[in-house]
């Protein structure tokens, strides 16, 4: 189900952005008060001023998003009982406006920042040069944040819990928007990717609206692995809808940093290490890929 248009009007922009989600929600008899908060685009010079103020460069998808709309809020209400607003739950898809994309502090700093693997979980270590910006506040439970490890890497999307623990959500902003739509904006869906899990009220809403999204008999990481397997096999027809990034207003930079994703670097480093490490030996450190290649060249001579 694709929504692609030649000329993007305001209505078609949000239709492309939401991938037809409002039409799906309208089919639920218990869902009412669908509301879309429309915002004007952010001017190019204002985006540049924000970047200069915080000494970071926004990724192209984030920059293009704000060049098309200053934040985003789509909400709806699911009424669990007739004529009872007290038994209603509010779902939403939200991205803060640029002025509310504020930097936060107060996290633990490591002398060796980066991303390591602890079993099946990415472990985030922040340094003195790291910067965190709030994309969305999840009431009292946590925040969805844009995390810069340092200026050499593009930022990733993480969830920061009330205990200041970080859990990886997505490698980029566009993927996070797809995930929000896939989970239909059900409250606190992001906590499905944490150890504590989503609240019971959200589980009930998942069972009522989309029981197949989060199966009760498997972990969310299993679903992520299965999706990555489908992508690697090229089964594009089984992949959820992709947002057409062409709907965003694009501002091109005169130059861009030679950066890559910290998650991609971590994955490639782990792959290199697994090929050369004894399987019975516990993995405690990460070997940089460049160092690994130099070591191989030295051994060959």
Task: Describe the SSE topology.
Elements: H1 10-18, H2 21-25, E1 31-37, H3 44-54, H4 60-66, E2 72-79, E3 88-95, E4 103-104, E5 114-118, E6 121-125, E7 131-138, E8 142-148, E9 153-154, E10 156-161, E11 166-170, H5 173-182, H6 200-209, H7 220-233, E12 260-261, H8 262-276, H9 289-300
Structure description:
This protein is an alpha+beta fold and 301 residues long. Helix content is 31%, strand content 22%. The chain has nine helices and twelve strands. The chain has a five-stranded antiparallel sheet with strand order 4-7-8-10-11. Strands 1-2-3 form a three-stranded antiparallel sheet, covered by helices on one side. Strands 5-6 form a two-stranded antiparallel ribbon. A hairpin with a 2-residue loop joins strand 5 and strand 6. The longest helix has 15 residues, at 262-276.
Question: Which characteristics define this entry?
Answer:
301 residues, alpha+beta, five-stranded antiparallel sheet, three-stranded antiparallel sheet, 9 helices, globular, disordered N terminus
Beta-strand level of the residues, as a percent range? Answer: 15-25%
Low-confidence stretches: 1-7, 236-240, 251-259, 273-293
Give the strand line-up of the largest sheet: 4-7-8-10-11
Radius of gyration, taken over Cα atoms and rounded to an integer in Å: 21 Å
Mean pLDDT: 78
Distance between the termini: 55 Å
Largest sheet: 5 strands, antiparallel
Helix proportion of residues, in percent? Answer: 25-40%
What best-fitting shape do the alpha-carbon axes yield? globular
